[in-house]
Amino acid sequence: MLKQDLKAIIEAADRAITAEDFDRLMDFYAEDATLVVKPGMLARGKPAIRRAFEAIAAHLNHDITVKQGEMTVIDGNDTALVIMETLLQSTDGNGVPTTETRRATYVFRRGESGKWLCVIDNSYGTSLLDVPPAA
Amino acid sequence: MLKQDLKAIIEAADRAITAEDFDRLMDFYAEDATLVVKPGMLARGKPAIRRAFEAIAAHLNHDITVKQGEMTVIDGNDTALVIMETLLQSTDGNGVPTTETRRATYVFRRGESGKWLCVIDNSYGTSLLDVPPAA
Fold this sequence. Notes:
Two copies of one chain form a homodimer. By secondary structure, the first copy, chain A, is of the alpha+beta class. Chain A has helices spanning about 1-20, 20-25, 45-60, and strands at about 30-40, 40-45, 65-75, 80-90, 95-110, 115-120. A six-stranded mixed sheet of chain A has the order 2-1-6-5-4-3, covered by helices on one side. The model of chain A has no long low-confidence stretch (mean pLDDT about 95). The interface of A and B includes residues 76, 85 and 107 of A.
C-alpha cells in the first residue's frame, strides 16, 4: 500500500538524518530534487541538498532526531503528495533541548524503475505563505 | 517564469469553474489526476473530477467565484508544488453569501509536450491532517 511504503521510506530517511549518513540519505532524492532549507532558501539538486543537510547538522550540534506523526497521502499520475506532521528534536547553541512540530508537504515521484523518489522536500508546508516569497 | 505561468493557468481554471465550462476546465488536468473534493473524499481521473465539479456547482447554487492570493512555487524534476491562498465566494442554500479562505497545495507536472498539467488538486492543504484520513 502506497501510504505504508512512503511512510517506511520517510522513516528510513529520518534515521539517515539522525545518523548523518548522507550517502544513504541522498538515495531517497531524485537527481534534480529541491529541498526547502528554510523559508526563502532552496537547495536544488543532490550536491546542494547534501551540503544543506551537512550545514543543518553542524548548526544543530550534530543532534537531530526527526519523527513523523499523522500522515495523509494523495496520489495521481505516478506522483504523490505527502502531508505529514514532522517533529524535530535537537539542541540549540546553548545546549538546551528544543522541539519543533511542522506540517510538512513532500512530493514523491515513481521513476521508471518503480522506485519512489522525493522530488520536493518542503517541511514547512503551507506556512511558507507566512513570509515573503523568495525573489 | 514558472510562477507566472502557473498563476496564469490556475486563474484560467478559476474562470472556467465560475463559467461552469467543464470541458475547458478538464484541459488543465492530467488524465489520471486526483482532486480532493473534501477531506476524506477523492475524485480520481478526469471523468470523476468532472462529475465532482458538476456536483459542487449544483451544491453551491451555480454561484462560485474562486480567487487566488499569496502564492509560492517550488519545483524539481519537472514537478511543481504550488502553495496558494484560495478565496472561495459562493451562496449557501439560504441565498446567504459565504466566503472561505484556504491554503491550497497543488501539484503540477510538465508533460512531454512541455505543457504543465495539474496532477493533484488539494485546496485543503495541510488542514487535511485535522480530520481522520480516508480509509
